[in-house]
Amino acid sequence: MTPGISRGVGKGTRTIAIHCAVCRTLLYRYHKGGTGGLVKCFVERIAEDRTNGDLKCPKCGGEFARRATIQGRPAHKIIQGKVFTRGMRRR
Length: 91
Known about the structure:
With about 90 residues, this protein is mostly beta strands. The chain is built from no helices and 7 strands. The strands form 2 sheets. It has a 4-stranded antiparallel beta sheet, with no helix packed on it. The protein has a 3-stranded antiparallel beta sheet with strand order 3-6-5, with no helix packed on it. The radius of gyration is 13 Å and the shape is globular.
């Protein structure tokens, strides 16, 4: 790991809610760092997972993400348009 770069959850993160775009069911509470849009969710930063672990909405069954490994860490790549977030800063 590069010195000065934190990989865990800590200072500089905020908790956002990730919902299904079709049925508005809460899928995750996630500790997001940075100011950009939601592209991926690192598994270790998921604070609360309300799915069955299959990356599908428990209510409507729609797939919202795909499994990936990014920088050697397990992650979920979000399918754009399948989710919306609450708690992110808007400019």
